[in-house]
Amino acid sequence: MSAVRRPVSELDRWFAAEILPHEAALTRYLRRVWRNTADTADLRQDVYVRVYESAAHSRPQQPKSFLFAIARTRRRTFIAGPLSGRMPNVVIFATV
């Protein structure tokens, strides 16, 4: 079974030219602020997805600064956890 390839878009070219050259610096930053190496790869991928999705709407004027701003925000979200700042979707039953 062969994979179906989609055409390379202008957004793909922009991402490859403006964001991917900073991968080593981004990885070093994430390893410095996030000690769990397994999570670092997931966090980096999450940052890339958010940058790509945002750039689909509007390209940032300073791609590197934008990349690291997203990384700082996502790191805080990862640290806080999925339930941070909102009520959990869990019902707690207490026995009396």
Question: Topology, pairings included?
Answer:
Blueprint: H1 10-18, H2 23-33, H3 37-57, H4 63-80
Helix pairs in contact: 2-3, 3-4
Molecular structure report:
With 96 residues, the chain is mainly α. The protein has a single domain (10-80), classed as Rna Polymerase Sigma Factor, Chain: A, CATH 1.10.1740. 61% of the residues lie in helices and 0% in strands. The longest helix has 21 residues, at 37-57. The chain is globular.
Q: Report the order of strands and helices.
A: HHHH
Class by helix and strand content? mainly alpha
Number of domains: 1
Number of helices: 4
**Average predicted local confidence, pLDDT:** 82
Distance between the termini: 59 Å
Q: What would the CATH topology be? A: Rna Polymerase Sigma Factor, Chain: A
**Amount of helix:** 55-70%
Strand content: under 5%
Radius of gyration: 18 Å
Largest sheet: none
Q: What overall form do the CA principal axes indicate?
A: globular
Query: Architecture in CATH?
Result: Orthogonal Bundle
CATH class: Mainly Alpha
**Uncertain ranges:** 83-94
